[in-house]
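Students often ask why inverse folding is considered easier than folding. One informal answer: many sequences map to the same fold, so there is more than one right answer. In these notes we will look at a single instance of the problem. The structure comes first.
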């Protein structure tokens, strides 16, 4: 099958060594081929636009025992917001006993209390983060913002690289296997 092509001359470029190169841009004139090409490109690009990035961050000790991660960070933030360990557990669907144990592990590792608790009374109990607990949450917030920005940038570069390798636009010069 012969596909009519029109060549449009682009400017002459001078490269190192004084060599002059003229480039030509070939424009496909066959509407059926152009439509097929567009459909292939659209399907691939569409799939890339559906890709979502998910990741979790956690820290562990030298024995790979988890210390703190996204879940515990969210729990501490929610305790501060709700003023109650129980209310935070209920909202996140965590058991009170397991959460209490996890918070104690963090306290043991870092060497400071995370919560100030007030038990019972007519208004019920109350929990708040200690100054050190607030500082830990703030540091994790800042750490997360930095990492989130870097990971998002890396993900965007990943998608752009895949778009450049779109099978509909690939000329066989991918340079790899």
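Output (designed amino acids):
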């Amino acid at each position: 099958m012969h596909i009519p092509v029109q060549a449009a001359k682009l400017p002459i470029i001078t490269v190192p060594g004084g060599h002059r190169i003229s480039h030509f841009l070939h424009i496909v004139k066959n509407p059926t081929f152009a439509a097929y090409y567009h459909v292939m490109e659209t399907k691939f690009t569409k799939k890339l636009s559906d890709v979502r990035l998910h990741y979790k961050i956690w820290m562990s000790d030298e024995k790979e025992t988890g210390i703190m991660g996204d879940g515990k960070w969210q729990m501490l933030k929610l305790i501060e917001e709700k003023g109650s360990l129980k209310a935070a557990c209920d909202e996140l669907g965590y058991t009170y006993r397991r959460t209490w144990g996890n918070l104690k592990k963090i306290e043991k590792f870092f060497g400071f209390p995370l919560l100030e608790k007030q038990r019972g009374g007519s208004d019920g109990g109350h929990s708040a983060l200690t100054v050190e607990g607030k500082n830990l949450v703030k540091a994790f917030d800042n750490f997360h913002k930095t990492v989130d920005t870097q990971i998002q940038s890396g993900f965007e570069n990943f998608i752009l690289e895949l778009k450049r390798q779109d099978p509909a636009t690939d000329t066989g010069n991918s340079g790899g296997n």
